[in-house]
């Protein structure tokens, strides 16, 4: 796992504006029905990463205006709660992400919420480049921190390891420290993970 210094990694130096996938109308990437954009490229190289292919900034295909328009259209139904940005690392793809965020807010205002996952912590983002700070200020929920295999926990809501947090961004920025999302709740019961060999 890599731990960058503030402003060491800049989106302008790495991002190719590629996306790995777009999944509309899903139930797993945050609260409610969501439309999820998976951007390509990540430098954290967390041990146990579930999708190493997406670490490449040229994985997938270029983001297009046609896809952007489709995403805005897919947000229209009332049952769609919002937009989710993941990857890859969204905060190393700020051009694409800010474009989608700004367009979403232009059309829907605050009617649709915006979530993002990031390997960066909230505190790291506060010390980083202007584009990262702008993106942070424009999202509602941040799921932060590197995935740590030694802290993996299947009972956690919307995250993979116990160091990661679900953060209410507006409240956090107001007081200058991370405030945990008030709806965060993890499971109490421990479930044994099914291993591949058990299925054979």
UniProtKB/TrEMBL annotation:
Gene name, per UniProt, is: nrdG
* Family membership: Belongs to the organic radical-activating enzymes family.
Species of the source:
Tetragenococcus halophilus
Q: What does this protein do?
A: Activation of anaerobic ribonucleoside-triphosphate reductase under anaerobic conditions by generation of an organic free radical, using S-adenosylmethionine and reduced flavodoxin as cosubstrates to produce 5'-deoxy-adenosine.
Q: EC no.? A: 1.97.1.-
What domain of life? Answer: Bacteria
- Identify this protein by name: Anaerobic ribonucleoside-triphosphate reductase-activating protein
**Class of enzymatic activity (EC top level):** oxidoreductase
Q: Which NCBIfam families match?
A: NrdG
> What keywords sit in the KW lines?
4Fe-4S, Iron, Iron-sulfur, Metal-binding, Oxidoreductase, S-adenosyl-L-methionine
Q: Which cofactor does it need?
A: [4Fe-4S] cluster
InterPro entries recorded: Aldolase_TIM (IPR013785), NrdG (IPR012837), Organic_radical-activating (IPR034457), rSAM (IPR007197), rSAM_sf (IPR058240)
The GO molecular function terms of this record are: 4 iron, 4 sulfur cluster binding; [formate-C-acetyltransferase]-activating enzyme activity; metal ion binding; ribonucleoside-diphosphate reductase activity, thioredoxin disulfide as acceptor
């Amino acid at each position: 796992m890599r731990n960058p210094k503030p402003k060491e990694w800049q989106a302008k130096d790495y991002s190719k504006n590629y996306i790995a996938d777009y999944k509309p109308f899903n139930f797993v990437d945050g609260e409610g029905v969501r439309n999820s954009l998976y951007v390509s490229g990540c430098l954290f190289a967390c041990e146990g990463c579930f999708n190493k292919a997406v670490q490449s900034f040229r994985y997938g295909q270029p983001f297009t205006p046609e896809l952007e328009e489709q995403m805005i259209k897919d947000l229209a139904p009332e049952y769609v709660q919002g937009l989710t940005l993941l990857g890859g690392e969204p905060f190393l793809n700020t051009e694409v992400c800010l474009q989608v965020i700004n367009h979403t807010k232009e059309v829907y205002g605050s009617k649709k919420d915006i979530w993002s996952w990031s390997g960066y912590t909230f505190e790291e983002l506060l010390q980083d480049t202007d584009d990262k700070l702008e993106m942070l200020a424009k999202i509602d929920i941040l799921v932060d921190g590197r995935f740590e295999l030694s802290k993996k926990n299947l009972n956690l809501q919307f995250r993979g390891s116990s160091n990661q947090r679900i953060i209410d961004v507006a409240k956090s920025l107001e007081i200058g420290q991370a405030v945990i999302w008030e709806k965060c709740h993890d499971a109490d019961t421990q479930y044994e993970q099914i291993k591949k060999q058990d299925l054979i």
